[in-house]
Amino acid sequence: xxxxxxxxxxxxxxxxxxxxxxxxxxxxxxxxxxxxxxxxxxxxxxxxxxxxxxxxxxxxxxxxxxxxxxxxxxxxxxxxxxxxxxxxxxxxxxxxxxxxxxxxxxxxxxxxxxxxxxxxxxxxxxxxxxxxxxxxxxxxxxxxxxxxxxx
Length: 151
Fold this sequence. Notes:
Blueprint: H1 15-27, E1 31-35, E2 44-46, E3 51-55, H2 64-77, E4 85-86, H3 94-114, H4 120-127, H5 134-144
Parallel strand pairs: 1-3
Antiparallel strand pairs: 2-3, 2-4
Helix pairs in contact: 1-2, 1-3, 2-3, 3-5, 4-5
């Protein structure tokens, strides 16, 4: 899982992110069911029912925490939608992009509070995101960055 030249696979402890997502899930009464389907089948959310079905067998480089955050994003952002949303690594479509941004903002919130992911490239590696996410990550990181901070 090497996305940038010079970066190798790195393990990050996403426990705090998972705990934050669980807090959001609980506060919003979102129901989650885990199952094992075909590896090509993504996790899905049904916003108007506040339900998420996680495919624990989904073959993707994206860490399960981000996929879960993405599905929570669909429920919180589109709670009146009658649609069924399936996780996609593509950054196309308004609803997919919005769910990706919700998940990235949630991740940034936790990372910033704990100061454990210093830049967006490390975040991409930590979350197992493909290169197509780079513009979204840069957007999230730059909107919160202090341009006058001295590192």
